[in-house]
Amino acid sequence: MQGIRIIITTRKNHVAALAPPTRRLDLKPLSNTHAFNLFCRITLHDDECPKELEQCATSILARCLGLPSAIVSIGRLLSSGPHTCDFWGRMYYEARNELPDNDIMRAILEPSYYDLSEDLKNCFLYCSLFPEDYQFSCESLVRMWVAEGFVLSRGNHTPEEVAEGNLMELIDCNLLLAMQNDEQGRVVSCKMHGILRDLAHAVAKKEKFHFTNDYYSLTRMKRDTVRRLSLCRWYDERIIKFRFPHLRTLVSLGTVSSSTATLSSILSESIYLTVLELQDSEVTEVPESLGILFNLPTLYWLAAHQGEVTP
């Protein structure tokens, strides 16, 4: 029909690839300048930003991925109060803590996350166990997903092959960012953008998928519901009194002191543990409780200092 045009939009690269190159337009995020101007117009109703607010505005925009929907959402939120760095910082912090129930995250991620299959959702949420800007080895991530039971063999494909397919699908959906490729062009490392991690972390907490660096929540809940626990740069040894009988994954990055008491207390009753990752740990001897973990196929141990770990 004359005058009719059909526009199809997608966030998936393999869908866009079905269109002829001459009819495909790859939309790019806003440049820093355009993002800043949009933020000022929405938040301040002006094209100019006061000097004292520029650094705060830049920090907020750094987490918006250059997406107009995210910038408009956070801009409207901040426009409702005083134009001070204290108010902006507080409101943005509260918005992040209320994920995924605020407009910012729904505008950015609902079309992507909620379209995933259940196994892909689990793989995506699992990545938020790790700190912001953490760079994953793709090989290690695949092994952890398999150890957790998120992926099973499918037809003639092994669980590892299925997990590799899941990884590439998350990258294809732009939910994970490819960081490094080998000589054959295969992705060997990836990471999760900070704002995506905020969403995944909030959904995981809401669904009790895992707990990270949250001592207060651990004191107020039934510890037998904890399946995955992340202690990243947390030296609080009060956790020594806790027991996690159904723990399946423990990620500890720069946390455990040279004493094995904290680690040993967690492991002593976690007989279902399938993934144990220790990085930058000061522990120099293997706790005896490690010997009872018969379900543990995946152990990553990277000491903070060069030297031997005493068996």
TrEMBL record:
It comes from the Eukaryota. One of its GO terms (biological process) is defense response to bacterium. The keyword Manganese does not apply. GO terms for molecular function: ADP binding. Keywords: Plant defense, Repeat. Residues 129-200 form the Disease resistance protein winged helix domain. It holds the Pfam family WHD_DRP. PANTHER family: DISEASE RESISTANCE PROTEIN RP, OS11G0226933 PROTEIN. This is Disease resistance protein winged helix domain-containing protein.
